[in-house]
Design brief:
alpha/beta, Alkaline Phosphatase, subunit A, 2 domains, eight-stranded mixed beta sheet, two-stranded antiparallel sheet, 13 helices, 18 strands
């Protein structure tokens, strides 16, 4: 068996269905043999403003000047055809012209227009934004989702059928998300496309195999498994039976229902948008509603070296529908106050447009300054932190480093900065860097954090 298949088109590994089922079984039973350490000592305190995070990861790096930091006064070489930003429902805040629905929701979110790290490499910048650490050290640190899976997951008493860290629909692929925490804290990547019926979740819904056939397979397995019948009290066999029962609850029981979007009203699905991203937003809402503490929507297609504006006109309306409806839906259900929405990518894109061939209006990588958005979970809405300069090329005021944003998210989740991580070398290691690590920081985002 070869559990990993290399996707030549995307140049990254993807997980086979068999490997996904194996991981789900192991995660459900807690029997990942590589991880013997008990982490209960690292559980987060009960008091927290937020209980869950929905991370919208803009894979490839979204152009900040086309989205949340428009610069029409900079001229055509910077804003191109997107030169008419629109007012939001918060006086003084303008965003890109292709986001009319999000403009009506600005009172629910805050914008950070001065994110910075100066790194222009996809892999290294992704690592920095998702861990708060510089690349190239002796250890590979876990991303925020893995840390939340540790502190809010199995070892903190999590009892859900679905793993506590879920990615819709593909792994980020730019780095090892779990780092030194090990495979138990990797995300459960759903695969599939929630805009299709059924949503074929890896290891949960098998294309072409009916529910009745799944039940028949299970009955046949039980008839053939004479060892389990003869030794029902054996601890290892009992653990395997428990894992099987949990896995089948995912496949045929309540675990699978959370992915069944046919239970939602058609008009709500329409408002989200019948696209992969729009329906991923709806699944994310259903997951946090069921108590999943961390969900990443891995939203690709933002590496716009070529024809940037054509991509913006296609994808920004899709993003606008999905995100705006997600915020409103969470708010209507009383979930936004305890759910953080974190939008952003590994960097921004070159403010000056590359009109020449072969780029034809493209934008390159830009780590000097870029934007992020946070909403809910104790973060105030209707605010802007920091600013870029007149052309969106440099931080003008209040630089915000990845570690500052991550630390603020941890604080809202009730995860202290001094929470220890299980360093494989036995050294004292914490979820947040210490002063001796010399990592640039300007502190927590207290301007937008409720007291």
């Amino acid at each position: 068996m070869k559990p990993f298949i290399f996707d030549l088109e995307k140049q990254r590994p993807r997980i086979s269905r068999r490997e996904a089922i194996r991981r789900a079984l192991l995660a459900a039973s807690g029997l990942v043999l590589a991880d013997h350490i008990s982490f209960r000592a690292y559980a987060a305190p009960a008091a927290a403003r937020a209980k869950a995070v929905i991370q919208i990861w803009m894979w490839g790096g979204p152009p900040h000047v086309d989205i949340f930091d428009p610069k029409p006064e900079a001229g055509n070489d910077y804003c191109g055809p997107l030169k008419a930003p629109i007012e939001t429902n918060v006086s003084g805040i303008r965003i890109g012209e292709l986001l009319p629905l999000l403009a009506k929701q600005a009172d629910k979110y805050s914008l950070i227009r001065s994110m910075t790290h100066g790194n222009n490499g996809h892999e290294t910048a992704s690592y920095m934004v998702q861990t708060g650490r510089p690349p190239g050290g002796r250890l590979v640190f876990p991303c925020v989702g893995a840390v939340v899976s540790l502190t809010r997951g199995y070892d903190a008493g999590y009892k859900g059928l679905i793993p506590p860290y879920v990615v819709l629909t593909e792994p980020q692929g730019r780095f090892d998300e779990a780092g030194f925490l090990g495979s138990r804290y990797k995300p459960f990547a759903t695969g599939g496309n929630p805009a299709q019926t059924p949503f074929a979740v890896e290891g949960v819904v098998a294309p072409g195999i009916s529910e009745q056939r799944q039940k028949s397979r299970r009955e046949l397995l039980h008839r053939l498994d004479t060892l389990a019948q003869d030794l029902p009290e054996d601890p290892q066999i009992a653990a395997n039976i428990k894992a099987e029962n949990t896995a089948y609850d995912m496949i045929l029981g309540d675990g699978a229902k959370v992915f069944d979007l046919s239970q939602e009203k058609a008009d709500l699905r329409d408002r989200y948008g019948r696209t992969k991203f729009g329906q991923s937003c709806l699944v994310a809402r259903r997951l946090v509603e069921q108590g999943i503490p961390y969900v990443t929507i891995n939203y690709g297609g933002w590496d716009t070296h070529k024809e940037n504006f054509q991509v913006m006109r296609r994808q920004l309306p899709e993003m606008d529908k999905g995100m705006a409806t997600l915020m409103q839906d969470l708010s209507d259900r009383g979930l936004l106050s305890r759910t953080i929405i974190w939008w952003g990518g590994e960097f921004g894109r070159t403010p000056k447009v590359q009109w020449e061939a072969p780029w034809n209006g493209g934008r390159g990588h830009w780590g000097k300054v870029f934007s992020a958005l946070v909403a809910g979970g104790g973060f105030k809405g209707g605010q802007v932190i920091g600013a870029s300069d007149a052309k969106g090329e440099e931080v003008k005021e209040r630089p915000v480093y990845p570690v500052d944003l991550i630390g603020s998210i941890y604080a809202q989740l009730g995860i202290p900065a001094t929470t220890k991580l299980p360093n494989p070398e036995g050294l004292p290691t914490f979820v947040m860097p210490q002063a001796s690590d010399s990592i640039p920081s300007t502190g927590l985002l207290k301007e937008i954090m409720t007291a």
